[in-house]
Specification:
The protein contains 15 helices and 13 strands. It is of the alpha/beta class. The protein has a seven-stranded mixed beta sheet. Strands 9-10-8-11-12-13 form a six-stranded mixed beta sheet, sandwiched between helices. Helix 4 runs antiparallel to helix 5. The radius of gyration is 29 Å and the shape is flat. The model has no long low-confidence stretch (mean pLDDT 88).
Length: 445
């Protein structure tokens, strides 16, 4: 059965809006046929690959649209592995949109998010992890994030996974040899059992480090939490370095969650100022604000639990610490510019930092503590949730092979772990995985 010819697709490859130039990208088997119809003068199909020419673009009535630079790339030596062209026109939404509409009338289909890079993966131009690294290169917000993405784009993650797969493949081969050599002895040889345990420990170390490295690209969430009127908004403004949240002497000023983006060390962080946590007898609007705060706590990677150092502890303060007990927390005692009246015996082992959001006392120390909590240490090449999930599934499969008393079942678990590792770079038969990866891309990439 003949395989159907793929569609020829087009999309704006640069951000929409005004600019010096805009680039419209076309990829597919009809690329040069379409260009021949809309370019005035010598036909692009007659030019060698990897050439750029200044040309006039015409509409279906023969009227000039814009003078453009047309770059052509022949398959398979192109980004997508297909015939591909890029039309560089004058910046401005109208001209670019006119060109895209013209291409559609000539038989182009609008590209889906990430479709150009997806086609590149399917053509073997990139591994899937390299394609993900391209997105992280585009979205990098810190130099560390850029360095990490570049490492994966150059194959760093593929090398790491290949090394893990080689170790696991060796264990699988030895397990199969053991089963074939002595079917009556179902116990693992001690050396083989030790190899599996070492691999589990290695996977666990990589996973732990990767959960921190993930912050580089996915960012981290830090929520400021406390009962009403302890100075959460003042602290939020101090950390941000500008007046974002409204501050007033009375309690309950903050009703809605207020978010701001900043960087601690190498990590982009969303800092959230939340409404005060209140008891069950609070008014409806306060209860709604508290529910929003509890959602922020659930989403947070780090909590700043704020207490008022100028007042004795209240039941609501204990409720705050109870609400954040399962989270990584920094206990912040605010208003230390006033007479201290807060007893700290109820902090359950938390070592508080004493600050004054009003005067700025110890705010620098608090920033340093937050930075330390998000410290990356040695940056591993694993950097997103999909990779971490795969490593966790592999670790679990190898762990099950250790725990099961039946050697044949254990060998099946080991092979399953090896197959799972392959999903990092070679899931090109899985539409579900490809859809998950490329849904995050912009249309023109």
């Amino acid at each position: 059965m003949t395989k159907p010819e793929p569609d020829t697709v087009c999309a704006l490859a640069t951000p929409p809006g005004r600019g010096g130039i805009a680039v419209v990208r076309i990829s597919g088997p009809k690329t040069f046929t379409l260009l021949d119809r809309i370019i005035r003068g010598p036909k692009p199909s007659g030019r060698p690959t990897h050439t750029t020419r200044l040309s006039w673009l015409k509409d279906h009535n023969g009227q000039n649209i814009d003078q453009v630079m047309v770059s052509g790339f022949r398959a398979p030596k192109s980004y997508t592995g297909e015939d591909l062209a890029e039309i560089s026109c004058h910046g401005g939404r109208l001209i670019a949109d006119t060109i895209v509409r013209l291409l559609k009338t000539q038989g182009c289909r609008p590209a889906e998010p990430g479709e150009f890079t997806r086609r590149a993966v399917m053509a073997g131009k990139f591994t899937l992890s390299q394609a993900e690294a391209i997105l992280d290169l585009v979205n990098a917000r810190t130099r560390a994030a850029l360095k990490n993405a570049l490492n994966r784009y150059q194959g760093g993650l593929s090398e790491l996974i290949a090394g893990l797969a080689e170790e696991l493949r060796d264990i699988v081969a030895q397990a199969e040899h053991h089963l074939g050599f002595d079917e009556t002895n179902r116990a693992w040889p001690p050396k083989l059992a030790a190899k599996k345990k070492r691999l589990v420990r290695k996977l666990a170390r990589i996973i732990a480090q990767s959960k921190r490295t993930r912050y580089l690209h996915e960012g981290a969430n830090c929520a400021i939490v406390g009962r009403p009127n302890v100075g959460k908004s003042s602290l939020f403004n101090r950390l941000l370095g500008q007046q974002r949240a409204v501050v007033a002497p009375g309690p309950g000023t903050t009703r809605d969650r207020v978010d701001a983006n900043l960087v601690f060390g190498d990590v982009p962080v969303t800092l959230s100022d939340t409404g005060g946590l209140t008891g069950r007898l609070a008014r409806t609007i306060a209860r709604l604000a508290a529910a929003q705060t509890r959602e922020a706590i659930k989403q947070a990677d780090l909590i700043l639990a704020v207490l008022d150092g100028s007042e004795p502890a209240r039941a609501a303060d204990r409720e705050v610490l109870k609400a954040v007990r399962q989270k990584q927390t920094i206990c912040v005692v605010n208003k230390t510019d006033k007479t201290p009246r807060l007893e700290t015996g109820f902090l359950n082992g938390h070592r508080p930092i004493r600050v004054s959001a009003l005067t700025g006392l110890n705010i620098g120390r608090l920033r340093a503590m937050i930075t330390q909590r998000f410290r990356l240490g040695k940056q591993d090449t694993v950097a997103n949730s999909r990779h971490i999930e795969i490593l966790e599934q592999c670790r679990d499969a190898v762990s099950r092979s250790i725990d099961t008393p039946d050697a044949e079942t254990a060998a099946i678990e080991l092979q399953a772990g090896l197959d799972i590792l392959g999903q990092v770079d070679a899931p090109t038969t899985s539409t579900e995985i490809l859809d998950r990866v490329f849904a995050r891309f912009c249309v023109g990439k």
